[in-house]
UniProtKB/TrEMBL annotation, chains A, B, C, D, E, F:
It catalyses: oxaloacetate + H(+) = pyruvate + CO2; 4-hydroxy-4-methyl-2-oxoglutarate = 2 pyruvate. Coiled coil: none annotated. Its cofactor is a divalent metal cation; Mg(2+). Catalyzes the aldol cleavage of 4-hydroxy-4-methyl-2-oxoglutarate (HMG) into 2 molecules of pyruvate. Also contains a secondary oxaloacetate (OAA) decarboxylase activity due to the common pyruvate enolate transition state formed following C-C bond cleavage in the retro-aldol and decarboxylation reactions. InterPro entries: RraA/RraA-like, RraA/RraA-like_sf. Mg(2+) binds at D133. Belongs to the class II aldolase/RraA-like family. Substrate binds at R132. GO terms for molecular function: 4-hydroxy-4-methyl-2-oxoglutarate aldolase activity; metal ion binding; oxaloacetate decarboxylase activity. Gene3D superfamilies: Ribonuclease E inhibitor RraA/RraA-like. It is an enzyme of class 4 (lyase). This is Putative 4-hydroxy-4-methyl-2-oxoglutarate aldolase.
Length: 247, 247, 247, 247, 247, 247
């Protein structure tokens, strides 16, 4: 039995997901029964000023510690290593998610790969391990997330073994086609069939209520009565919505 | 025998403590026989531009890994969980210090709690664990320190079990009423009876001498003679103070 | 709201629990919705030959990093420190569970404390941290579990701050009165109201089936058909039970 | 380009490999240019008394953190999950090598799976993660290696996603068909084309020399002259061989 | 046999090395057979705006956990501790590299030492451990790299035991006289005899080709054909160089 | 200023130290003001049955990560590498203490070195890192302590750089000539001038009292009155000594 996603998410829906924060999506997923969607310890190394989030479909790539004879064989061809194939397979609104096994002893992404991915319409690169050449990646000015930096390149210790398999990243299982949402708080991998509910829940509901709660807190309302709102506070909120033309 | 502080520190003294750096206070405490006051690995996630330090009295809060039946019971009431009670108990010049057991698998503080604490006169939040929704915490623009970020919220893995007990934070024992001093170098928990000496020592002494030593180093003085100053250098310093109207 | 257990377990039921393995109890608890009951990384340092398991009610004890003035005060009395009080409070069929915050820099239990606990009817000591003097603990020949060994004693780095509070141990929340089951595979903390079901489930069911499955596997049966048994294998099992006088 | 082994090793050669220690094989591989063959931190949890080593061809299995909807789907069939298929695919002289991503939060192998693997002619199980029910595995009395023990079972946190792919284990890349050699010192994964040289090197050479060196050391010979032997010591060794009928 | 460098690098060559990035140098060294030159986990804590890199000859300093009687003896003299001697020994274009054993429990460098080192012509300070008083180090505005921050000072837990010995830093062996290259991506320790080749390789070769590859990638060229360039792309590059006056 | 011991301990005193346990020595040292003498995480990998402890004077040895050119140079001579020189320098009642920087990626001691050290009168080997070939070390049957096992040998990743320098081992500073005491509870490094007091304190005092306390505990005495003994219990003890002919 192959572990795979069978649900497609439209580009329009991806666009709407950009208005949801990683923190909100992560919390909503726990409430929907998906306990393990936020990638632990994977933070933005480069994120363009003014961009609020990055969203796309997961293309996955997996590295293992190299074996000297097999990696030599792999490098004899310029076109056939899984990491190059994964990069060249990127389509509009894809996100490349890389499993190195939390390997901190070499970098697997530099500015050249980042540049190519951007050209192909990719939206972000997520690495459970290290990137290299952060200085030049910052020139490309593209969303790149990782656990750390290492100066050396792939052939120091790793070889790629496959792409578009289910992988691990930041302690989270990532299946090709998962929807990746990344912002300055980190990265969440969302099962595609959950996007609609997450977007709807964020849109209809939370934001107006949250805005009002913050207003009330700034006026001195207590957590006990206003977060979450008790019956009385809910009435107050309904009243406020009417008075301010939201209903 | 209850482990507790029995010494009160006035708001005026807290105000003076703001002029002492975490680094100076931490070093002075070691010299006074308190070896373990600096919290390891707890760094500013949000710190208002232009503010030099945050100072206040510790209110403590403790989480343990949740038990499914007990946490359900806890969430049935809006007013009685220890974490909400701790927050609502905050008074002017308090600092909330949270022990999650260095738990990195969920966030315990977001922008709503931060906003409430600020309203109540709290001065900072210190978490031995993760915060969430850093982006919105930055909108609140308030001193928040932690070991990391996680997208999910408390009920993913934790439940609160008590407040104003002695706790651990960053490898340091923190007793309610300890004085917390936090700046861009991190956080130190100070026994209240030590504040006066720390403030006095910083005020009378070190700063003028340190200023002069830096002047001398910039003129080429050697560490061997000037840091700390040997007898000759001390005379030189006394002379300089007279010549420059400090005595 | 105080986090506490409200269910009592009889000594008879505890006795029956001794026939359930930590592994079975841990798995059953996950199926009952309690995901986090097995203590990670806490293994037997001393376990009497011939004893299969240790069972008892949790008495909890908590240490924090010491503060020099407060620990001095604590040691001025021989009778009032929380760790001594916790030990002296032990009754028949209690297990002492100690939270040091995974502190590996000193030992909190030696042979003297172990000896006293045994005299009082305690069944085991579980430490999320280090023990000391393992050689002499082995002379006492009593079930003691920990994360490691350290030669030094409590006052090197720790002070006790309370007992019979909810604590953490091995990444598990432990509430006073939880039932502790420990064997050579480690330790599980069981909510008291779950014991009956765990004992019943182990007794009625699993053991005979498991015995039969092992017999079949040793004859070459496939996991696909016999573990868990499919419809046909279930009939086979019923047949076997009849033929062997189990029904 | 698929990363795979293309070299077959006969059962006879495997038999001979049993006379080589993990330590010797690991060192020889470094000298042959394979730097990374010894699996770090993976030690025997169960190893039959009197057996000196376990040898076989790697069958690989990979787990990732579970996703709730996909794991549910996986468990609806008894025959199709990758971990069951991997186990049932075991043939004589295979070794099952499991990549859980060093996941310490649940056990993936218990006594039932171990029993089945033994029946099918498997030689050992190697887990980069945890096993469960060590007590009953010891009844099976079969070579099982892991990083630790956890009481819970697979569905607590993991799901299997593939078998006979290249994987990671103990920081080593393992390709299906690699030859696994395991003894009380741990585990080494050997490229199949290297076996002949390793066996030959161990047989012809090292053992007699090493025996003689140990004899000399016990008589007081210095490392400087005898380990490795300098020109004079080599003559001495040749002489000794002649005198003792080895040549 | 003393482990030492015997090759001198001129100040002019050091100047040229400033144009090479840490990432390029680290990768070139792996290709030259030096696998382990990039220091893992040691990142800039302070780096002057506008400065692209820091370069100099390694002066090494080593700390061990203090012994109370010996450290007392050490502090009785102002001029003779190894850490003070190391600092005072700094000459133009030196870099101070400090081995604390990855000790995270006290800071070994503050603003005073940084100031003195800058006056003496030092180019950077690299610490495998913690610094203190980062706020004031930022006033000095000098390249300082470390693994973290701690508020306390040396005598809390450490004592210096030697300088200009071979040491460890970030998992890399550093021998006095090694050439240190540090930029925003971290730090690399280069054997002095390799500098010429690294500088030459970076100058002649890579930069123009890399510039052209980036141009081509931004026009949509594939990694498969252009990175590294295949035969056709190499011709294209030669053509481009001629057309643009580079040859 | 050279950090060194200036106090000699006689072989007779070493012999007496064998009657003190690591746990007692470690605790006494903390009371004497030496807080950091027990080596954390360094446990017996091989310890002869029937031997109670190992005692000797520290000869130290230090490794750093290898540099390819320098290690090649080192291996060109059989007699001059620091690790071989350290081994050959061993005299009666020495203990070899090895600092690898907690490096877990290769083994530095095998059965050959162990055999040589035993011949020369060495008493134990202590490694802050890994040993190799534990199976054959067990044939030598000699006290060897380490943090773990690795199959590979020194030249995989390390080179020795010096011996009889102050080093780190298990988080403890070790100075040549320190007295090493090792038993099944681990290892403690004792400043030589402290041996006499430790031996005396253990001999005169503790053992008889402790024997009596254990007797009383087995009769049901409380920790509150008998450990440590209060005034009344002290009288009781004096009485008991008289009655039993100890005074």
């Amino acid at each position: 039995m192959i572990i795979k996603n069978t649900y497609d998410v439209s580009d329009e829906l991806l666009e709407e997901l950009k208005h949801v924060s990683v923190s909100t999506a992560s919390h909503t997923l726990v409430e929907m029964g998906y306990r393990n969607a936020y990638m632990q310890g994977i933070l933005p190394m480069c994120f363009p000023e003014g961009q609020s989030s990055a969203v796309g479909r997961a293309v996955t790539l997996r590295f293992i510690p190299l074996r000297e004879d097999l990696v030599k064989q792999q490098y004899e061809s310029l076109t056939e290593s899984p990491h190059r194939s994964a990069l060249e397979s990127i389509r509009k609104n894809d996100v490349l998610v890389i499993d190195t096994g939390s390997h901190m002893e070499t970098g697997v992404i530099g500015d050249i790969f980042t540049r190519r991915l951007r050209y192909l319409g990719g939206q972000a690169i997520i690495v459970d391990g290290c990137i290299r050449d952060l200085i030049r990646i910052k020139d490309v000015n593209f969303p790149v997330f990782s656990k750390g930096i290492h100066g050396s390149a792939i052939p120091r210790t790793l070889m790629s073994v496959g792409f578009n398999e289910p992988i691990r990243c930041g302690g989270v299982g990532v299946v090709p086609g998962d929807i990746i949402l990344a912002d300055r708080d980190g990265v969440v991998a969302i099962p595609p069939q959950c996007i609609e509910e997450i977007v709807k829940s964020a849109r209809d509901h939370d934001e107006l209520l949250e805005k009002w709660i913050k207003l009330k807190l700034d006026e001195g309302a207590s957590l006990h009565t206003h977060y979450p709102p008790n019956t009385e506070a809910k009435h107050e909120f309904e009243q406020w919505k009417k008075e301010n033309g939201y209903v």
